[in-house]
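Example 9 (inverse folding). The structure is encoded as follows.
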């Protein structure tokens, strides 16, 4: 049996690699997708081979992640339950697509992942996998084995001489990619407890951020960010630049209790500096380029879109259909937004569009104009008040 394992090099997937060989007698191919998580990628290949993988594949998916997931979600202004910018949710289908490519090319019988039976990631991995190949076999060790927690995993690893990462113990779990870092579990399971000092990786504590604000201008074409301060940048470089700027000023931290797809509430802490800047800049350019009713209709659909992504339905027909609508709306979203970054805040201070600007200063001015006849408003109000007046007359007639 040949299994392709989504492999990070951490304790869980190191144990899973050995467990698959022991329990299934499998030849294990370790697959590590680089979506911007950092130093662990460079070490993954060697660790996997040391643990018994017959092959270790490391693939750079950073551009694929930004272009095929982050930017489409930005074009939809996707935010889950008012706060979460979906960093982990967006990465999982991209990782799974890479995993499935390797499984197909190597003639694998199954794929495996290290997601637990309580979380959302098991759903995201597996729904994505089945959407790509409905016949694929998925092995989820956390739903099968008798190991209960970190102590059991460490004992298992030590008893089999599995090289385990030697890192300081953290009182929480962490997942990173180019868009964000998420923190959950451990001390964070108490929704009243503050995040421990020094936890955040991407952002400076706003209290320690520079005492002087910094301004940044982001340019958009068809809803996609293409430039920072007038300099055109590739997708990965652009997000990295905004992460650096936002991180320096403590931008993009959120602390929420969210509703997981599996039914429980979970406390999550996130930092998404570049993504937060992009969301504010994008909405600013939309504010002057989108028709009112189009914008309002799109905003009604944002929670549905975000829920689809959060719940793992990235490759579903409903998400793809909704994406087509979002992208059609974005054809007019061309322009720039200027934002001030200061001690954790992002404030829009300007927006402009040379060609698609619907903001007419001649109409909105409080000074004299020859465009808008203010007397027209009287009839507009009378017509809109017609049903309200009729209802009021009826109530008064009934003595209410």
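The amino acid assigned to each position is listed next.
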């Amino acid at each position: 049996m040949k299994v392709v394992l989504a492999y990070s090099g951490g304790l869980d997937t190191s144990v899973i690699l050995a467990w698959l060989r022991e329990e299934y007698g499998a030849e294990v191919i370790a697959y590590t997708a680089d979506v911007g998580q950092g130093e662990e990628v460079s070490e993954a290949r060697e660790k996997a081979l040391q643990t018994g993988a017959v092959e270790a594949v490391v693939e750079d998916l950073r551009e694929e992640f930004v272009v095929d997931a982050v930017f489409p979600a930005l074009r939809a202004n996707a935010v889950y339950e008012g706060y979460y910018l979906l960093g982990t949710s967006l990465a999982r289908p991209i990782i799974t697509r890479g995993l499935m490519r390797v499984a197909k090319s190597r003639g694998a019988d199954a794929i495996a992942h290290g997601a637990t039976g309580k979380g959302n990631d098991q759903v995201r991995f597996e729904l994505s996998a089945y959407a790509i190949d409905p016949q694929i076999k998925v092995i989820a060790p956390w739903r099968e084995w008798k190991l209960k927690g970190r102590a059991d995993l460490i004992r298992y690893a030590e008893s089999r001489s599995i090289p385990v990462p030697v890192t300081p113990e953290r009182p929480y779990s962490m997942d990173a990619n180019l868009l964000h870092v998420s923190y959950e579990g451990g001390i964070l399971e108490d929704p009243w407890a503050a995040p421990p000092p020094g936890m955040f990786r991407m952002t400076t504590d706003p209290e320690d951020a520079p005492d002087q604000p910094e301004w940044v201008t982001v340019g958009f074409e068809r809803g996609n960010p293409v430039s920072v301060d007038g300099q055109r940048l590739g997708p990965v470089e652009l997000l990295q630049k905004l992460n650096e700027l936002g991180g320096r000023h403590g931008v993009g931290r959120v602390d929420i209790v969210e509703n997981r797809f599996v039914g429980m509430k979970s406390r999550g802490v996130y930092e998404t500096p570049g993504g937060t800047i992009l969301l504010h800049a994008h909405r600013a350019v939309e504010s002057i380029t989108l028709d009112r009713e189009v914008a309002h209709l799109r905003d009604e659909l944002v929670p549905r879109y975000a829920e689809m992504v959060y719940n793992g339905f990235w490759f579903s027909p409903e998400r793809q259909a909704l994406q087509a609508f979002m992208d059609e709306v974005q054809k007019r979203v061309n322009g720039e937004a200027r934002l001030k970054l200061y001690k954790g805040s992002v404030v829009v201070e300007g927006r402009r569009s040379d060609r698609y600007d619907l903001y007419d200063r001649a109409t909105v001015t409080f000074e004299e104009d020859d465009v808008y006849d203010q007397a027209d408003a009287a009839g507009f109000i009378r017509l809109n008040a017609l049903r309200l007046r009729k209802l009021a007359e009826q109530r008064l007639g009934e003595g209410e």
